[in-house]
Amino acid sequence: MTFLPKPKLHHPLLATNAIGLTRRDYEGAISTLCAGCGHDSISAAIIQACYELDLPPHRIAKLSGIGCSSKTPTYFLGAAHGFNSVHGRMPSVLTGANLANRELVYLGVSGDGDSASIGLGQFAHSIRRGVNMTYIVENNGVYGLTKGQFSATSDKGSKAKKGTINTDEPIDMVSMALQLGATFVGRSFSGDKTQLVPLIRAALLHPGAAFIDCISPCVAFNNHDGSTKSFDYVRAHNEAVNRLDIILGRTPIEADYAPGALVEIEQHDGTVLRLRKLHEGHDPTDRVSALNYLQERKVAGEIVTGLIFVDADPSDMHANLGTVEGALNVLADADLCPGAAALDKVNAALR
Ligand SMILES: Cc1ncc(C[n+]2csc(CCOP(=O)(O)OP(=O)(O)O)c2C)c(N)n1
Ligand code: SF4
Ligand SMILES: [Mg+2]
Questions:
Q1: Of 114, 303, 296, whose CA–CA distance to 227 is shortest?
Q2: 249 vs 282 pLDDT, higher one
Q3: Is residue 217 within 6 Å of ligand 1 at its C-beta?
Q4: Could you list which residues have their CB under 5 Å from ion ligand 3?
Q5: Which ligand is closest in space to the CA of residue 86?
Q6: Which residue's CA is the closest to the ligand 1 atom numbered 2?
Q7: What is the 3-state secondary structure (H, E, C) of the chain?
Q8: Hey, which of 70, 136, 146 would you mutate to test ligand 1's pocket, going by the most ligand atoms within 8 Å of its Cβ?
Q9: Terminal C-alpha separation, the chain
Q10: What is the pLDDT of residue 322?
Q11: Which has the minimum average pLDDT: 94-108, 110-124, 174-188, 240-254?
Q12: What pLDDT score was predicted for residue 45?
């Protein structure tokens, strides 16, 4: 894989966050993706979100599969832990890492081919197990890396660059994530930083399985008339259900004059999600109505974006399994070897 390190020159007056890091400290190597690729904008949004949350980069684990999208972790958070796994296998590697060390912040980055085609089963099981992670699919509706074949998220009737029409039904990963029990589900667009950055921030703070489907046009193979994942198409059909703010227990400084109802959702860790409702009838805390709303808007030809569903009090895989607190590599001998009496009890239970 091509690797171009960035020169480490910081302007001395660059702003720093609460832990003394500049935005540049959250960057990675220089991107080798095509100029204008939506995936680069998502990397920029991830950098911005982690900087704004004051996350120490070495406490983040970024994992991916194979594809242009899965190459992107090289281009952000250079000081984080990274694992570029096999095609479609990021979710199981992430699940294992999370079981071994629950103390890190897990960020899974994948593509529509990686997650909706070869990795669909892996995606499904990581979501239904409630792995505490932020799972971002950079969805361009094609296999970009292998030169533009339709993926499982390409809409029926959409056109490939050379004119072929897709005849297969698409998989909507947002609806799937909702059905599988994800406790945070959002969709956004790589060209909408105002919506995407707070959505990623909220997902990173969410203590459960958080899924974001991010439409990310492939400028090389899927940005033409007839594509439903092009910049023009998404701009024309984007319907935001809400506008998102996160309050980190500090008093917000900005004043908000936008019209529409305001919904406040207090999360487990005390942070507050403030949702400015743009669409009447969308309740982001009701899974069934969220699913119905997606179907209803789909029939009207709209792509619903924003925070579509959130469970403010989620449980995660560790709570479900009753695992020990802390990372496995710091357990002492006494924790690992409970003694002969405990073993006798287990054996007696099996007789
Ligand atoms: C097991 C296996 N099968 C097929 C491939 C070939 N391959 C590499 S990337 C890719 C599709 C990537 O598509 P997507 O996840 O949508 O990423 P994008 O490049 O569009 O960002 C395929 C089929 C592979 N690397 N490994
Ligand atoms: S081929 Fe498409 S997805 Fe891959 S880097 Fe180029 S524009 Fe991005
Ligand atoms: Mg793709």
A1: 303
A2: 282
A3: no
A4: 111-113, 140, 144
A5: 1
A6: 87
A7: CCCECCCCCCCCCCCCCCCCCCHHHHECCECCCCCCCHHHHHHHHHHHHHHHCCCCHHHEEEEECCCHHHHHHHHECCCCEEEECCCCCHHHHHHHHHHHCCCCEEEEEEEHHHHHHCCHHHHHHHHHCCCCEEEEEEECCEECCCCCEECCCCCCCCECCCCCECCCCCCCHHHHHHHHCCCEEEEEECCCHHHHHHHHHHHHHCCCEEEEEEECCCCCCCCCCCCCCCHHHHHHHEEECEEEEEECCCCCCCCCCCCCCEEEEECCCCCEEEEEECCCCCCCCCHHHHHHHHHHHHHCCCEEEEEEEECCCCCCHHHHHCCCCCCHHHCCHHHHCCCHHHHHHHHHHHC
A8: 146
A9: 55
A10: 96
A11: 240-254
A12: 98
Residue nearest (by alpha carbon) to ligand 2 atom 5: 33
Residue type, 125: H
Establish whether residue 40 lines the binding site of ligand 1, counting it when its CB lies within 6 angstroms of any ligand atom. Answer: no
Each residue's pLDDT tens digit, 44-71: 999 999 999 999 999 999 999 999 999 9
Query: CA–CA distance from 273 to each of 57, 115, 177, 239, 304 (Å)?
Result: 24, 28, 20, 20, 19
pTM: 0.93
CB 85 within 8 A of CB 114: no
Q: Is the CB of 140 under 6 A from ligand 1?
A: yes
Ligand 2 mutation target, pool 219, 223, 227, 229, most atoms within 8 A of CB: 219
Distance from Cα 339 to the centre of ligand 2, integer Å: 56
Q: Which of 33, 92, 114, 149 is the best mutation target for the ligand 1 pocket, counting ligand atoms within 8 Å of the beta carbon and taking the most?
A: 114
Regarding the beta carbon of 231 and ligand 1, being less than 6 Å apart is answered no
Measured distance CA(10)–CA(23) in Å, rounded: 10
Per-residue model confidence as pLDDT tens digits over 74-91: 999 999 999 999 999 999
Expressed in angstroms and rounded, the spacing between residue 165 Cα and the centre of ligand 2 is 20
Q: Residue with the nearest Cα to atom 6 of ligand 2?
A: 34
